[in-house]
């Protein structure tokens, strides 16, 4: 119908990467569960293994999709003492991966060797449902899974089973299927699953930048000029 479409690229990389790290730390160190113990009176005397989680030091981190956000996540995790980065995607990116000494591996190897798996890939027919029963069964029992890409990359029923049966240690999700997630969804019954309401880009600076880009696109479109960021259909 000749409708022009503007969009707002490249503005949420840092905000989403920050949230990915926050979600990873929340899940692996059991922060929501620990905070609830304070509120509910569960915090009593010191116990050796009470509220223990898993740390990043000397760990292996697997990143599914080493694009802008995946790189920004790796850049932020590196100072935590991560021993090794693995990544997978449509193909190797040697120049990009060199900054982190990251190794390109098949998805199965990434699942088997990673202590932390962070999903930052695009949703495509090839990635839809990619993180499924087979994927989770290959992960370590101590592994933590984080998804800040799109909910449909994950088979949520398989993720629930993996978490409920102790097949993996914990998960952190900023994206689900559907969104909003129904309040009676089985994943919300699990203590070892942290779910956020798709707030990856939710910083004031990022949302303001997105708004300005959108308005500039709109004004240029109304004037019949090229948009600063136009989707070529």
From TrEMBL:
UniProt keyword DNA damage present: no
Superkingdom assignment: Eukaryota
InterPro entries: D-isomer_2-hydroxyacid_DH, D-isomer_2_OHA_DH_cat_dom, D-isomer_DH_CS, D-isomer_DH_NAD-bd, NAD(P)-bd_dom_sf
Residues annotated as transmembrane: none
PROSITE patterns reported for this sequence: D_2_HYDROXYACID_DH_3
GO cellular component: cytosol
GO molecular function: glyoxylate reductase (NADPH) activity; hydroxypyruvate reductase (NADH) activity; NAD binding
Residues annotated as domain D-isomer specific 2-hydroxyacid dehydrogenase catalytic: 1-231
Ranges where the D-isomer specific 2-hydroxyacid dehydrogenase NAD-binding domain occurs: 21-200
Keywords linked to the UniProt accession: Oxidoreductase
Family affiliation: Belongs to the D-isomer specific 2-hydroxyacid dehydrogenase family.
Protein's name according to its UniProt entry: Glyoxylate reductase/hydroxypyruvate reductase
Organism in which the protein naturally occurs: Grallaria varia
